Amino acid sequence: MALFLRNAAVIQCAESARLDALIAGGLDRFLVERLGPTAALVDHARLPAIKKLLERLGETPRLAGS
Amino acid sequence: MQQVEFPDAHALDGFSAGALAEVKRVLGLRTKLNDRATLAAAISRFIGTEAHHALLVDHLSDAEWSVLAGPLLESGEAELASVAAALSAATGGEGGASTLKLLSLCALLPDPDRRRSGFSLRPDEFPYVRRYVTCAPPSFVRDWAEVEALPLDPPRPMDPPPAAVRPMGLVAVQRAIYLLLTELARKPLRHRLDGELYDADVKRLLKLWGEARQESSATAAGERPLFWFALAILMGAQLLQDTAGEWRPALDALGLLTAPAAHQADTLLAGWAPSRYNEIVTIPTLVVGYAERQQRPFFSPVGHDPVAYARVAGARAYVCDTLRRVIAQDPNAWYRASDFAAFAFRQHPEMLLPRKDAGTVTSPLFESRPVPKTPYTGIHRSTAVAGPDGTLSLALNMEDDWIEVEGAFVQQVLREPLSWLGVVETAEDERGECCFRLTALGQHLFAGGPVPKDEPSQPTASLAVQPNFEIIVPDALSCFALLGELEQFAERLTVDRAATYRLTQNALARALDGLWTLERVGEVLQSASRAPIPQNVRFTLQEWAAVHGRLTLHPRTGVLGADSAEELDAWSRDPRLAPLLGQRLGPRHVLVSSAASEGLLRTLTSRGRPPIVVDYAGSPVKALRFKSADVVEVRAGADPYVRYRMSAIAEEASSGAREGTYRLTEPSVRRGVAMGWKGAEIVDFLATSAAKAVPAELRIRVLGWGRSVAPALFEPVIAVKLGRSAVTWEDLARIAGIAERLAHVISPQLALVRPAELDALQEALKSCGVAIEPGLALDEPAQDGPVDEVDLLKGMLLRFNDHPEGVVDAMRRARILGKFERARERRYYY
Predict the structure, then answer these.
(1) Alpha carbon of B584: minimum distance to chain A alpha carbons (Å)
(2) Domains and CATH numbers, chain A
(3) Which residues of A touch B551 (CB under 8 A)?
(4) B463 in helix, strand or coil?
(5) For tag attachment on chain A, is the N or C end more exposed, with fewer CB atoms within 10 Å?
(6) CB-based contact (8 Å) between A24 and chain B?
(7) Over the stretch B777-802, which tens digit does the pLDDT of each residue have?
């Protein structure tokens, strides 16, 4: 059965290698499900920690609206 | 005659409803409703109008006017009996009827502060009006009668003008406003339900102001009023808006600073008029209130200030009005502030404070009687001054010292708020007295002069970008528009005469998340820069922008997961569904905007494929089931987040178990804790996901493994139990040498003793004839059987004088306490 998630947190990269690197760099702790090569569903309850991790990994993610 | 706003509408509370109706009739007012509120509102609107004035001129005799313009006006208020006496003397008739007439015409009003008398206008009640009822004429009458009766010359221009002019303009206020608006846009200023500002937020702002560490220094004390002034006028001008308990900048509030100076001053002047700024507190020669700590120059919504907020607001409006009426006649001239203050005060002695009679009769009939001075309540000199008899005094009275209070207030308004707003410029004459004149801006705002031309701004060469990523704006006060742009993509370090900012990756990312692009940032920097942007800065900005673009975080988005890639492909080709789908995230998943989500769900439902909807803003509902003390089963169809959370804190059960069965173990829970989950959070997750309480054993284990339970502490002790007897440990503990050997008395029969103390206790008990022997088994039922309550009670009764509560305890054990109490009750009544 199809599943529709509201208020989900998703990280989307331009390249799959970058997402691999992020997961290897610690994002795996917050990884709920990898949705595709360049996108991952992450823990919506831990967004501050995720942002801090991304900052530590040299990323300043673009914040998208819904 | 100019219409004067009637200031004491609530004085009408002193009239009864019938009296108000009578007043309405005499004044010739027409109201549809005759209830008390409607009548009071109609009469209060009428008082002070041209029509009211005309009515008084028509109806009052010269004798009555002389009473109004005489002692009553000088003292502000008088007892009703005094007015009646003065009218009797002036008219040669019965004073009561004339007083009643003045009251009916609203030429007199009962003192609102003393309306407890329940004053009524009914003629039959008038003789009974007590002496403590005071009356005052409306300010309209006072103004009119004073101007007529006591003509005053306006202050004369100074000749020659002062030499040294104190430099002052709008810039200090602009800087304060800029700092406040930018800071409050970042983090608003909270207030309590009663409107009082949060101390922590005020301290934060004062720290930003650069004062928090030097609050006692003279420099800081001099600047602090400007901070409060800026805050107050921003609120007054509604450039700060109260939203859900927080003061936040209004939309485009910062835009004010880029407007022409005349518009800025006009807006800020309008904001100052009703503002909660308190000029009285800033007068250096006065101490206001009784608090030892210096007060903030800002009216608290819940404070009790000696001079009320409305009075100060009214007084500053009056000062501005007097400036318009008097000074504007020769707007270029310099005036002594003290002359202007004296003129303003003589024109309107109650500009700041009601001038009350001290309680004695002040009519011409009693002129020979010495009149006591009326003290200023809650206002004192900051330094004692010698009086006529040579004694030093801090006290001020309304008769002699108005120049130090009302006069100082007028001068303070000129020296600070009006000067800060660029309306007047001030100087000191040869005697060191303050003098002032209207600036070009002031002449425009107060005397209808031409709009002054703004000094040309500096559109070019306004900033310098350093190789270390710092941006320096040397003349920050001339380019607030530029500062506003820098705020968007750089981090502010300092703002003073010069401002410094730093370009950072986070600040740039924040700007790019908004409406900015890298090109626009470059354009702003390049167009305002004195020199080309350093190469390393340019390259780094490009790099940061590239990094920013390669990763997107959707913090709250919709995601649709199809059962298969083929199904999603089909939906993507569907002309009704395709427009509702966003970017594809993977083979089975696609983004859905919140705007499209409802339409998508409706369409899928209409196709017979309603998806399971999970909202992460809420809690997962019945996604788990507790199977045993450490096993949890995730229900089929649960969303991936539940599985993710379970994987973080539990091991997936091995062969033989159903799919989705997890076992919580100590290592798995510890792993979850290491990932940042607390034991209590895990329990909470389990409870909300299962929609039921976590079984006690599992809860304790998770809390324990999650290190949410403080370790239990132990100490080896020996339990000593007394045998059947009337002796208890409480009795024994009264004997010297025993109490200090006991670690803890658990019950009358059981006590704990530290091993090292056992021998000493044994000796101490032996001296009382009580032996200790080994053989106590706590896990066995009591060997000594039930205590014989009768024996126990007998023993206690024998020692009643030493230990009365032991008797009660023994009676309770013997279940005879109730009988005893009932017997005692009967004896009481007997």
Answers:
(1) 9
(2) 9-56 (3.30.70.1220)
(3) 11-14, 18, 54, 59-62
(4) strand
(5) N
(6) no
(7) 766 555 455 556 666 677 777 666 76
